[in-house]
Amino acid sequence: MAFWGISKLxxxxxxxxxxxxxxxxxxxxxxxxxxxxxxxxxxxxxxxSHFTLIAIAITFWRAGTGPxxxxxxxxxxGVSILxxxxxxxxxxxxxxxxxxxxxxxxxxxxxxxxxxxSQRFLIEARNNLELRVAERTGELTRANEDLQNMQAELRRRxxxxxxxxxxxxxxxxxxxxxxxxxxxxxETYRIFQYDRTITPTVxxxxxxxxxxxxxxxxxxxxxxxxxxxxxxxxxxxVMPDGAVKHVNVVVRALNDESGSIEFVGAVMDVTAARRPQxxxxxxxxxxxxxxxxxxx
Length: 296
Fold this sequence. Notes:
By secondary structure, this protein is α+β, with helices and mostly antiparallel strands. It has helices at about 1-40, 50-65, 65-85, 95-170, 185-190, 200-210, 215-225, 270-275, and strands at about 170-175, 180-185, 230-240, 245-255, 260-270.
């Protein structure tokens, strides 16, 4: 079993080596055999250089430098044997032909090695790129999952906050003095009885203020924009149906990152607390001393 496992592991590399060097032998044998067949039918042997060069080029390109050099040696040996046995033309010059073979083989070997090196670098670069893409994709996937979890948690907390504000009739708001932007919570919209599609402004707030409290509210807002300090005030509002609400507003001044002042506050509907409570009087009954009965 151990020898079988070792042979199983080494069989594929050994087969690859045999295949590469076998290509060199087969290509050179095919080139020389083609030359002999052509000479048998009285074709000129000028084509032998073409056949053997093609065999060497194919070996360098497909099998690498080692098998390519083997193909060069086999081709030189084969051509020398053919020349010495007079299978080639008498005018065939062996030495220049072998020199030409050597120069061509060196150029092919250099080109093949350069091409294989560039291919290896490209494969490594592609693998590294795929690895980095996979890592980045995993990081983005995890970041997206974390973001979705955070968004779900924020939505859950916002739902809790909205429910708590609705139960306590307390809304929140923010007011940036530099931009004039005002943000309201859902409960604040409900207290002022404005649709959520409307952008809140100071003018919309003043439209709801009771006429008797309008001057005081305007004075409070003007003083807040000048002093830029915390403030508190309470006023009445008149709703579109004519109902009167009492609201209590608590505001705190905060400095943002740019140094500008931003007001953050809460508005509470205290109408139920300001509504007069009915008085109930219980009639008093005179106290009577229980009578004592004599025992028989």
